Amino acid sequence: MLNNNHIEIIKSTIPLLESAGPALTQHFYQRMFSHNPELKDIFNMTHQKTGRQSVALFEAVAAYAKNIENLAALTTAVERIAHKHTSFNIKAEHYQIVGHHLIETLRELAPDAFTKEVEEAWTEAYLFLAQIFIDREEELYQLREKATGGWRGTRRFVVTDKKPESELVMSFVLTPEDGGKVLDYEVGQYLGVQVTPSKGENVEIRQYSLSQAPNGENYRISVKKEGNNSDQLGLVSHYLHDEVEVGAVIEILPPAGDFFYTEVNKPVVLISAGVGCTPMQAMLQQLAKDGKSDPVTYLHACENEQQHSFIDEVDTIVSAKGWNHRVWYREPLSAEGINNSSTGLMDLAQIKDALPTNVGHFYTCGPVIFMDHVVKQLESMGVERERIHYEVFGPHANL
Ligand code: HEM
Protein backbone atom coordinates (compact mmCIF):
# COMPACT_ATOMS: atom_id res chain seq x y z
CA MET A 1 0.00 0.00 0.00
CA LEU A 2 1.11 3.54 -0.70
CA ASN A 3 1.67 5.56 2.47
CA ASN A 4 2.57 9.20 3.21
CA ASN A 5 6.23 8.36 3.44
CA HIS A 6 6.17 6.85 -0.07
CA ILE A 7 4.40 9.96 -1.36
CA GLU A 8 7.06 12.26 0.13
CA ILE A 9 9.84 10.16 -1.38
CA ILE A 10 8.17 10.12 -4.82
CA LYS A 11 7.76 13.89 -4.72
CA SER A 12 11.41 14.33 -3.79
CA THR A 13 12.51 12.32 -6.86
CA ILE A 14 10.53 14.39 -9.40
CA PRO A 15 13.49 16.74 -10.13
CA LEU A 16 15.62 13.66 -10.78
CA LEU A 17 13.12 12.27 -13.30
CA GLU A 18 12.75 15.63 -14.99
CA SER A 19 16.48 16.27 -15.28
CA ALA A 20 17.17 12.80 -16.70
CA GLY A 21 14.49 13.37 -19.39
CA PRO A 22 15.12 11.71 -22.76
CA ALA A 23 18.13 9.66 -21.55
CA LEU A 24 15.87 7.85 -19.09
CA THR A 25 13.27 7.20 -21.76
CA GLN A 26 15.78 5.93 -24.28
CA HIS A 27 17.46 3.65 -21.75
CA PHE A 28 14.11 2.25 -20.63
CA TYR A 29 12.93 1.33 -24.13
CA GLN A 30 16.30 -0.09 -25.19
CA ARG A 31 16.38 -2.19 -22.05
CA MET A 32 12.80 -3.38 -22.43
CA PHE A 33 13.05 -4.27 -26.12
CA SER A 34 16.34 -6.14 -25.67
CA HIS A 35 15.00 -8.22 -22.74
CA ASN A 36 11.44 -8.57 -24.03
CA PRO A 37 11.63 -8.36 -27.84
CA GLU A 38 8.07 -9.75 -28.07
CA LEU A 39 6.88 -6.26 -27.08
CA LYS A 40 8.08 -4.95 -30.44
CA ASP A 41 4.91 -6.55 -31.77
CA ILE A 42 2.83 -4.29 -29.55
CA PHE A 43 4.58 -0.93 -29.55
CA ASN A 44 4.61 1.23 -32.64
CA MET A 45 8.25 0.88 -33.66
CA THR A 46 7.98 3.91 -35.94
CA HIS A 47 7.04 5.99 -32.91
CA GLN A 48 10.06 4.53 -31.15
CA LYS A 49 12.25 5.77 -33.98
CA THR A 50 10.75 9.23 -33.87
CA GLY A 51 10.66 9.21 -30.04
CA ARG A 52 6.96 10.15 -29.90
CA GLN A 53 5.44 7.47 -27.67
CA SER A 54 8.65 7.20 -25.66
CA VAL A 55 7.97 10.67 -24.35
CA ALA A 56 4.31 9.90 -23.64
CA LEU A 57 4.93 7.02 -21.23
CA PHE A 58 7.56 8.84 -19.18
CA GLU A 59 5.62 12.07 -19.10
CA ALA A 60 2.69 10.03 -17.87
CA VAL A 61 4.76 8.61 -15.06
CA ALA A 62 6.13 12.06 -14.17
CA ALA A 63 2.60 13.55 -14.25
CA TYR A 64 1.49 10.74 -11.99
CA ALA A 65 4.30 11.50 -9.55
CA LYS A 66 3.35 15.18 -9.51
CA ASN A 67 -0.31 14.42 -8.88
CA ILE A 68 0.20 11.60 -6.47
CA GLU A 69 -1.88 13.38 -3.82
CA ASN A 70 -4.57 14.41 -6.29
CA LEU A 71 -5.15 11.46 -8.59
CA ALA A 72 -8.60 12.78 -9.53
CA ALA A 73 -6.74 15.26 -11.76
CA LEU A 74 -5.66 12.31 -13.90
CA THR A 75 -9.06 10.69 -14.42
CA THR A 76 -9.58 11.92 -17.98
CA ALA A 77 -6.07 10.91 -18.96
CA VAL A 78 -6.41 7.47 -17.37
CA GLU A 79 -9.61 6.90 -19.34
CA ARG A 80 -7.98 7.96 -22.62
CA ILE A 81 -4.90 5.78 -22.04
CA ALA A 82 -6.95 2.78 -20.85
CA HIS A 83 -9.00 2.90 -24.07
CA LYS A 84 -5.80 3.18 -26.11
CA HIS A 85 -4.22 0.26 -24.25
CA THR A 86 -7.25 -1.99 -24.85
CA SER A 87 -6.96 -1.39 -28.57
CA PHE A 88 -3.50 -3.02 -28.28
CA ASN A 89 -4.85 -5.85 -26.12
CA ILE A 90 -2.49 -4.89 -23.27
CA LYS A 91 -2.72 -7.46 -20.47
CA ALA A 92 -2.01 -7.44 -16.73
CA GLU A 93 1.26 -9.35 -17.22
CA HIS A 94 2.57 -6.58 -19.50
CA TYR A 95 2.41 -4.17 -16.55
CA GLN A 96 4.86 -6.35 -14.62
CA ILE A 97 7.34 -6.21 -17.48
CA VAL A 98 7.04 -2.44 -17.94
CA GLY A 99 7.26 -1.90 -14.16
CA HIS A 100 10.37 -4.04 -13.87
CA HIS A 101 12.20 -2.14 -16.63
CA LEU A 102 11.13 1.22 -15.20
CA ILE A 103 12.59 0.38 -11.79
CA GLU A 104 15.78 -1.12 -13.24
CA THR A 105 16.22 1.94 -15.46
CA LEU A 106 16.05 4.23 -12.42
CA ARG A 107 18.53 1.99 -10.59
CA GLU A 108 20.98 1.91 -13.51
CA LEU A 109 20.85 5.60 -14.35
CA ALA A 110 20.74 7.06 -10.83
CA PRO A 111 22.49 4.49 -8.63
CA ASP A 112 23.27 6.95 -5.84
CA ALA A 113 19.80 8.46 -5.55
CA PHE A 114 18.10 5.09 -5.94
CA THR A 115 18.20 3.96 -2.33
CA LYS A 116 16.19 1.06 -0.92
CA GLU A 117 13.50 3.53 0.24
CA VAL A 118 13.25 5.14 -3.19
CA GLU A 119 12.96 1.75 -4.80
CA GLU A 120 10.20 0.72 -2.42
CA ALA A 121 8.28 3.97 -2.89
CA TRP A 122 8.46 3.79 -6.69
CA THR A 123 7.54 0.14 -6.77
CA GLU A 124 4.45 0.77 -4.64
CA ALA A 125 3.50 3.84 -6.65
CA TYR A 126 3.88 2.04 -9.97
CA LEU A 127 1.86 -0.96 -8.77
CA PHE A 128 -0.86 1.39 -7.56
CA LEU A 129 -1.11 3.19 -10.91
CA ALA A 130 -0.82 -0.05 -12.89
CA GLN A 131 -3.72 -1.53 -10.91
CA ILE A 132 -5.92 1.46 -11.82
CA PHE A 133 -5.22 0.75 -15.50
CA ILE A 134 -5.51 -3.02 -15.19
CA ASP A 135 -8.92 -2.74 -13.49
CA ARG A 136 -10.37 -0.23 -15.95
CA GLU A 137 -8.99 -2.13 -18.94
CA GLU A 138 -10.44 -5.42 -17.70
CA GLU A 139 -13.80 -3.69 -17.29
CA LEU A 140 -13.65 -2.46 -20.89
CA TYR A 141 -12.56 -5.89 -22.21
CA GLN A 142 -15.48 -7.57 -20.45
CA LEU A 143 -18.04 -5.00 -21.62
CA ARG A 144 -16.97 -5.53 -25.22
CA GLU A 145 -16.79 -9.29 -24.93
CA LYS A 146 -20.29 -9.62 -23.47
CA ALA A 147 -22.13 -7.21 -25.79
CA THR A 148 -23.90 -8.44 -28.95
CA GLY A 149 -21.35 -8.96 -31.71
CA GLY A 150 -18.54 -8.45 -29.20
CA TRP A 151 -15.24 -10.24 -28.74
CA ARG A 152 -11.91 -10.02 -26.94
CA GLY A 153 -8.45 -9.94 -28.49
CA THR A 154 -8.20 -10.14 -32.27
CA ARG A 155 -10.89 -11.35 -34.69
CA ARG A 156 -10.45 -12.08 -38.40
CA PHE A 157 -12.20 -9.67 -40.77
CA VAL A 158 -12.37 -9.83 -44.57
CA VAL A 159 -11.91 -6.68 -46.64
CA THR A 160 -15.22 -6.58 -48.50
CA ASP A 161 -14.80 -3.18 -50.14
CA LYS A 162 -11.90 -0.82 -50.82
CA LYS A 163 -12.55 2.66 -52.16
CA PRO A 164 -10.46 5.82 -52.56
CA GLU A 165 -12.07 8.83 -50.85
CA SER A 166 -9.47 11.33 -52.10
CA GLU A 167 -5.86 11.45 -53.28
CA LEU A 168 -4.48 10.13 -49.97
CA VAL A 169 -7.39 8.50 -48.13
CA MET A 170 -8.67 4.97 -48.80
CA SER A 171 -11.74 3.40 -47.18
CA PHE A 172 -11.84 -0.29 -46.24
CA VAL A 173 -15.06 -2.09 -45.34
CA LEU A 174 -14.35 -4.96 -42.95
CA THR A 175 -16.76 -7.88 -42.45
CA PRO A 176 -16.21 -10.69 -39.91
CA GLU A 177 -14.91 -13.87 -41.54
CA ASP A 178 -17.04 -15.92 -39.12
CA GLY A 179 -20.22 -14.36 -40.56
CA GLY A 180 -21.28 -13.06 -37.15
CA LYS A 181 -22.54 -9.66 -36.03
CA VAL A 182 -20.20 -6.84 -35.07
CA LEU A 183 -20.19 -4.90 -31.84
CA ASP A 184 -21.84 -1.47 -31.92
CA TYR A 185 -19.67 1.50 -31.02
CA GLU A 186 -19.93 5.16 -30.12
CA VAL A 187 -19.48 7.42 -33.14
CA GLY A 188 -15.99 8.91 -32.88
CA GLN A 189 -14.32 5.70 -31.65
CA TYR A 190 -11.55 3.82 -33.44
CA LEU A 191 -10.58 0.24 -34.26
CA GLY A 192 -7.29 -1.49 -33.56
CA VAL A 193 -5.96 -3.00 -36.79
CA GLN A 194 -3.27 -5.68 -36.54
CA VAL A 195 -1.22 -6.54 -39.63
CA THR A 196 2.22 -7.85 -40.59
CA PRO A 197 3.37 -5.57 -43.43
CA SER A 198 5.46 -7.29 -46.07
CA LYS A 199 8.20 -4.65 -45.71
CA GLY A 200 8.24 -4.68 -41.90
CA GLU A 201 9.94 -6.80 -39.26
CA ASN A 202 7.15 -6.98 -36.68
CA VAL A 203 3.45 -7.38 -36.19
CA GLU A 204 2.05 -3.84 -36.22
CA ILE A 205 -1.06 -2.46 -34.53
CA ARG A 206 -2.57 0.87 -35.53
CA GLN A 207 -5.76 2.72 -34.63
CA TYR A 208 -8.11 4.07 -37.29
CA SER A 209 -11.34 5.93 -36.63
CA LEU A 210 -14.54 4.22 -37.67
CA SER A 211 -15.84 6.31 -40.53
CA GLN A 212 -19.47 5.17 -40.71
CA ALA A 213 -22.36 4.93 -38.24
CA PRO A 214 -22.71 1.48 -36.63
CA ASN A 215 -24.81 -1.03 -38.62
CA GLY A 216 -24.20 -4.31 -36.75
CA GLU A 217 -22.82 -5.98 -39.90
CA ASN A 218 -19.47 -4.45 -40.79
CA TYR A 219 -17.00 -1.66 -40.03
CA ARG A 220 -15.49 1.00 -42.23
CA ILE A 221 -12.13 2.66 -41.61
CA SER A 222 -10.54 5.30 -43.83
CA VAL A 223 -6.77 5.36 -43.88
CA LYS A 224 -4.45 8.18 -44.94
CA LYS A 225 -1.28 7.21 -46.78
CA GLU A 226 1.36 8.67 -44.47
CA GLY A 227 4.91 9.79 -45.29
CA ASN A 228 6.87 8.30 -48.15
CA ASN A 229 7.46 4.85 -46.64
CA SER A 230 11.14 5.62 -46.07
CA ASP A 231 12.55 4.67 -42.69
CA GLN A 232 9.25 2.86 -42.04
CA LEU A 233 7.22 6.11 -41.83
CA GLY A 234 3.83 5.15 -43.17
CA LEU A 235 4.74 1.45 -43.11
CA VAL A 236 1.23 0.27 -42.26
CA SER A 237 -0.74 2.80 -44.28
CA HIS A 238 1.35 2.08 -47.40
CA TYR A 239 0.85 -1.64 -46.87
CA LEU A 240 -2.93 -1.19 -46.54
CA HIS A 241 -3.20 1.10 -49.56
CA ASP A 242 -0.86 -0.82 -51.84
CA GLU A 243 -1.14 -4.46 -50.84
CA VAL A 244 -4.38 -5.16 -48.96
CA GLU A 245 -7.09 -5.84 -51.54
CA VAL A 246 -10.72 -6.96 -51.39
CA GLY A 247 -10.76 -10.55 -50.09
CA ALA A 248 -7.73 -10.10 -47.81
CA VAL A 249 -8.11 -11.02 -44.15
CA ILE A 250 -6.86 -8.77 -41.34
CA GLU A 251 -7.02 -9.04 -37.57
CA ILE A 252 -9.16 -6.47 -35.78
CA LEU A 253 -9.40 -5.47 -32.12
CA PRO A 254 -12.78 -4.23 -30.84
CA PRO A 255 -13.78 -0.54 -31.09
CA ALA A 256 -12.34 1.71 -28.37
CA GLY A 257 -11.75 5.38 -27.60
CA ASP A 258 -13.02 8.05 -25.21
CA PHE A 259 -13.74 10.65 -27.90
CA PHE A 260 -17.30 10.23 -29.12
CA TYR A 261 -20.52 12.12 -29.73
CA THR A 262 -22.94 12.40 -26.82
CA GLU A 263 -26.50 13.49 -27.59
CA VAL A 264 -27.41 16.73 -25.77
CA ASN A 265 -30.40 18.23 -27.63
CA LYS A 266 -28.29 21.20 -28.65
CA PRO A 267 -26.84 22.36 -32.00
CA VAL A 268 -23.71 20.45 -33.03
CA VAL A 269 -20.70 21.62 -35.00
CA LEU A 270 -18.28 19.07 -36.47
CA ILE A 271 -14.87 20.57 -37.27
CA SER A 272 -12.03 18.62 -38.88
CA ALA A 273 -8.82 18.96 -40.82
CA GLY A 274 -7.31 16.45 -43.25
CA VAL A 275 -7.94 12.84 -42.28
CA GLY A 276 -9.45 14.12 -39.01
CA CYS A 277 -12.71 14.06 -40.97
CA THR A 278 -12.98 10.26 -40.50
CA PRO A 279 -14.70 10.20 -37.07
CA MET A 280 -16.84 13.11 -38.30
CA GLN A 281 -18.32 10.89 -41.05
CA ALA A 282 -19.53 8.47 -38.39
CA MET A 283 -20.99 11.36 -36.36
CA LEU A 284 -22.61 13.01 -39.37
CA GLN A 285 -24.22 9.73 -40.48
CA GLN A 286 -25.44 9.01 -36.95
CA LEU A 287 -26.93 12.49 -36.51
CA ALA A 288 -28.77 12.05 -39.82
CA LYS A 289 -29.98 8.57 -38.83
CA ASP A 290 -31.20 9.87 -35.45
CA GLY A 291 -33.16 12.64 -37.20
CA LYS A 292 -31.34 15.30 -35.17
CA SER A 293 -33.67 18.28 -35.03
CA ASP A 294 -31.17 20.89 -33.76
CA PRO A 295 -28.96 22.55 -36.39
CA VAL A 296 -25.81 20.68 -37.45
CA THR A 297 -22.78 22.35 -39.05
CA TYR A 298 -19.99 20.48 -40.85
CA LEU A 299 -16.71 22.38 -41.26
CA HIS A 300 -13.63 20.94 -42.87
CA ALA A 301 -10.14 22.16 -43.81
CA CYS A 302 -7.75 20.42 -46.19
CA GLU A 303 -4.91 21.12 -48.57
CA ASN A 304 -6.85 21.26 -51.85
CA GLU A 305 -9.71 19.72 -53.83
CA GLN A 306 -7.79 16.51 -54.52
CA GLN A 307 -7.20 15.90 -50.83
CA HIS A 308 -10.82 16.58 -49.93
CA SER A 309 -12.35 13.29 -48.75
CA PHE A 310 -16.03 12.22 -48.68
CA ILE A 311 -17.21 15.13 -50.86
CA ASP A 312 -20.29 13.35 -52.22
CA GLU A 313 -21.15 11.54 -49.02
CA VAL A 314 -21.16 14.75 -46.98
CA ASP A 315 -22.97 16.64 -49.69
CA THR A 316 -25.77 14.06 -49.86
CA ILE A 317 -26.41 14.26 -46.11
CA VAL A 318 -26.10 18.02 -45.62
CA SER A 319 -28.23 18.81 -48.68
CA ALA A 320 -30.98 16.39 -47.66
CA LYS A 321 -31.02 17.81 -44.13
CA GLY A 322 -30.42 21.46 -45.00
CA TRP A 323 -27.43 21.53 -42.63
CA ASN A 324 -24.62 24.11 -42.77
CA HIS A 325 -21.42 23.14 -44.54
CA ARG A 326 -18.17 24.96 -45.32
CA VAL A 327 -14.75 23.91 -46.53
CA TRP A 328 -11.38 25.69 -46.46
CA TYR A 329 -8.69 24.77 -49.02
CA ARG A 330 -5.26 25.90 -47.89
CA GLU A 331 -4.00 26.04 -51.47
CA PRO A 332 -6.85 25.38 -53.92
CA LEU A 333 -5.94 24.00 -57.34
CA SER A 334 -8.68 25.86 -59.17
CA ALA A 335 -10.02 29.37 -58.76
CA GLU A 336 -13.67 28.31 -58.29
CA GLY A 337 -13.29 25.62 -55.59
CA ILE A 338 -16.64 24.05 -54.71
CA ASN A 339 -19.81 25.51 -53.24
CA ASN A 340 -19.24 26.91 -49.77
CA SER A 341 -15.46 26.86 -50.00
CA SER A 342 -12.93 29.45 -48.85
CA THR A 343 -9.20 29.76 -49.37
CA GLY A 344 -6.60 29.65 -46.61
CA LEU A 345 -6.68 28.32 -43.07
CA MET A 346 -10.01 27.71 -41.34
CA ASP A 347 -11.21 31.12 -40.18
CA LEU A 348 -14.30 30.77 -38.03
CA ALA A 349 -14.76 34.55 -37.85
CA GLN A 350 -15.99 34.35 -41.47
CA ILE A 351 -19.04 32.38 -40.32
CA LYS A 352 -19.31 33.54 -36.72
CA ASP A 353 -22.96 34.60 -37.03
CA ALA A 354 -23.94 31.15 -38.27
CA LEU A 355 -22.23 29.35 -35.38
CA PRO A 356 -24.17 28.36 -32.22
CA THR A 357 -21.47 29.84 -29.97
CA ASN A 358 -23.85 30.28 -27.00
CA VAL A 359 -25.23 26.77 -26.67
CA GLY A 360 -23.71 24.49 -29.32
CA HIS A 361 -21.37 21.55 -28.80
CA PHE A 362 -18.21 21.55 -30.91
CA TYR A 363 -16.46 18.31 -31.90
CA THR A 364 -13.08 18.72 -33.49
CA CYS A 365 -10.44 16.35 -34.82
CA GLY A 366 -7.14 16.84 -36.64
CA PRO A 367 -3.44 17.48 -36.04
CA VAL A 368 -2.42 19.24 -32.80
CA ILE A 369 -1.57 22.51 -34.55
CA PHE A 370 -5.03 22.65 -36.17
CA MET A 371 -6.79 21.88 -32.92
CA ASP A 372 -4.91 24.68 -31.14
CA HIS A 373 -5.95 27.04 -33.91
CA VAL A 374 -9.62 26.00 -33.68
CA VAL A 375 -9.87 25.88 -29.90
CA LYS A 376 -8.36 29.39 -29.61
CA GLN A 377 -10.87 30.75 -32.11
CA LEU A 378 -13.81 29.09 -30.35
CA GLU A 379 -12.67 30.33 -26.95
CA SER A 380 -12.30 33.86 -28.28
CA MET A 381 -15.95 33.62 -29.37
CA GLY A 382 -16.99 32.69 -25.84
CA VAL A 383 -17.35 28.91 -26.24
CA GLU A 384 -16.43 27.28 -22.92
CA ARG A 385 -14.04 24.33 -22.80
CA GLU A 386 -16.83 22.01 -21.60
CA ARG A 387 -18.54 22.42 -24.99
CA ILE A 388 -15.39 21.70 -27.01
CA HIS A 389 -14.68 17.99 -27.48
CA TYR A 390 -11.54 17.01 -29.30
CA GLU A 391 -9.38 14.16 -30.47
CA VAL A 392 -5.76 14.61 -31.43
CA PHE A 393 -4.54 12.21 -34.11
CA GLY A 394 -1.24 10.61 -33.11
CA PRO A 395 0.14 10.21 -29.59
CA HIS A 396 -0.63 12.89 -27.04
CA ALA A 397 2.29 15.00 -25.93
CA ASN A 398 1.51 14.50 -22.24
CA LEU A 399 -0.84 12.97 -19.75
C1 HEM B 1 1.35 2.53 -15.52
C2 HEM B 1 1.88 2.21 -16.67
C3 HEM B 1 1.64 2.91 -17.98
C4 HEM B 1 1.46 4.24 -18.26
C5 HEM B 1 1.47 5.39 -17.28
C6 HEM B 1 1.28 4.36 -19.69
C7 HEM B 1 1.06 5.55 -20.36
C8 HEM B 1 0.80 5.66 -21.71
C9 HEM B 1 0.51 6.90 -22.42
C10 HEM B 1 0.45 8.27 -21.79
C11 HEM B 1 0.27 6.59 -23.70
C12 HEM B 1 -0.10 7.55 -24.83
C13 HEM B 1 -1.61 7.56 -24.96
C14 HEM B 1 -2.13 8.37 -26.13
O1 HEM B 1 -1.42 8.60 -27.11
O2 HEM B 1 -3.31 8.75 -26.07
C15 HEM B 1 0.42 5.16 -23.83
C16 HEM B 1 0.29 4.49 -25.02
C17 HEM B 1 0.69 3.19 -25.18
N1 HEM B 1 1.03 2.32 -24.19
FE1 HEM B 1 1.11 2.67 -22.21
N2 HEM B 1 1.34 3.12 -20.24
C18 HEM B 1 1.56 2.21 -19.24
C19 HEM B 1 1.68 0.85 -19.38
C20 HEM B 1 1.79 0.20 -20.59
C21 HEM B 1 2.05 -1.21 -20.75
C22 HEM B 1 2.21 -2.21 -19.61
C23 HEM B 1 2.11 -1.45 -22.08
C24 HEM B 1 2.40 -2.75 -22.82
C25 HEM B 1 3.48 -3.43 -22.63
C26 HEM B 1 1.84 -0.19 -22.77
C27 HEM B 1 1.78 -0.02 -24.13
C28 HEM B 1 1.39 1.13 -24.76
C29 HEM B 1 1.26 1.25 -26.21
C30 HEM B 1 1.58 0.16 -27.23
C31 HEM B 1 0.82 2.55 -26.46
C32 HEM B 1 0.57 3.20 -27.82
C33 HEM B 1 1.92 3.62 -28.30
C34 HEM B 1 1.99 4.20 -29.66
O3 HEM B 1 0.99 4.45 -30.32
O4 HEM B 1 3.15 4.40 -30.05
N3 HEM B 1 1.65 0.78 -21.83
N4 HEM B 1 0.72 4.62 -22.62
TrEMBL record:
Q: Which residues bind heme b?
A: H85
What the record notes about the co-factor is: Binds 1 heme b (iron(II)-protoporphyrin IX) group per subunit.
Globin domain boundaries: 1-138
Which Pfam families has this protein been placed in?
Answer: FAD_binding_6 (PF00970), Globin (PF00042), NAD_binding_1 (PF00175)
Reductase: region residues: 149-399
* Single annotated GO MF: nitric oxide dioxygenase NAD(P)H activity
Residues under site feature: Involved in heme-bound ligand stabilization and O-O bond activation = Y29
Q: Please name the PROSITE patterns in this protein's record.
A: FAD_FR (PS51384), GLOBIN (PS01033)
Which of this chain's residues are annotated to bind FAD? Y190, R206, Q207, Y208, S209, V392, F393, G394, P395
Q: What does this protein do?
A: Is involved in NO detoxification in an aerobic process, termed nitric oxide dioxygenase (NOD) reaction that utilizes O(2) and NAD(P)H to convert NO to nitrate, which protects the bacterium from various noxious nitrogen compounds. Therefore, plays a central role in the inducible response to nitrosative stress.
This chain belongs to the protein called Flavohemoprotein
Native organism taxonomy: Bacteria, Pseudomonadati, Pseudomonadota, Gammaproteobacteria, Vibrionales
